[in-house]
Amino acid sequence: MKRFFLVCALFLPSLITVAQVKQPTLMVEPSDVWCTTNGYITEYDNQGVKQILPNYRLALQSDPILVGAITRLGMLMKDRGFPLKDLEAVMKSIERNQAENNLITSKSSGASILENPIDVLRRTARADIILSLTWSVNTLGPKKSVTYSLRGLDAYTGVQIAGAQGTGTQSNSSEVPVLLEEAISVNMERFAEQLQSYFEDLGNYGREVSIDIRVFDNGSGLDLESEFDGTELSEIIDNWMYENTVGHTFNKSDATEAHAGYEQVRIPLYRQNGMGMDAEYFVKGLQKHLKAAPYNIASKVSARGLGHAVLILGEK
Length: 316
Description:
- The protein has helices at residues 2-20, 32-37, 56-62, 64-79, 87-96, 117-125, 176-185, 188-205, 233-244, 279-291, and strands spanning 26-30, 41-46, 49-54, 84-85, 103-105, 112-114, 129-140, 143-154, 160-167, 207-215, 227-228, 231-232, 251-255, 259-267, 299-303, 308-313.
- Strand 15 (299-303) and strand 16 (308-313) form a beta hairpin.
- The longest helix has 19 residues, at 2-20.
- It is elongated, with a radius of gyration of 23 Å.
- The protein has 316 residues and is of the alpha+beta class.
- The chain is 38% helix and 30% strand.
- Mean pLDDT is 85; it is low at 1-20 and 99-113.
């Protein structure tokens, strides 16, 4: 009996560690290439610059094969313990919530910042990793096969962190989602391992985001060279970044009197309450710091997706 308890005691720490490892939350999206090839795109006005973006809502409403493919891939990931966000459900949520829009306006001066609709989608879904899927059907007589490409993308940075591609075996089955599931299954174990390994690295070294600091042009005289007790505001912000980033890791890529850009900002994966941390929540900590005495600086936070936030100083 003593030997039994000794063995349990030896293995208990490792069991607890495994149990505490959280799985990344995933969302499956059709790739930009697939949407463009099939005509599911929309034109987006980005402050006067026309951009072409995938129209997921139209694709989901028009293409039952896409819905089936997303469902099949989702089942494969769920079987491996990865939590899923449903693309269609998130799109409906955005439509119901009219507060989610692209135009964010200052209450005082009316200054505006435009947010990419895809950023709104991913910020609402709050998935850690996007599974970008594309495929084509090969036909040879009565038989079909599917060639696919599957990429795991960090939803915060857009960086590819896992990948799989290939062509499935030929089959008389006419159901493309089934053929796709069979083709992807061959490489699924390695793909899932890549996702989990990357997510665990984030837990150890922090999630990477970017932060912009700007100043409202409202005639207040406030800028990043303004001094408080002999210290410039830009240095005060630098010090806050140093104290609150994981491993004090960040890169200040731009610095003028009106703008400071911070890249490769490493933030904790989770908040203290266990919820996920994103760039918006992180920079709100800086917002609260500057709102307090002796600075008393009003500011506005604008989220541009999960991994990029802008803090605009000078007014709410």
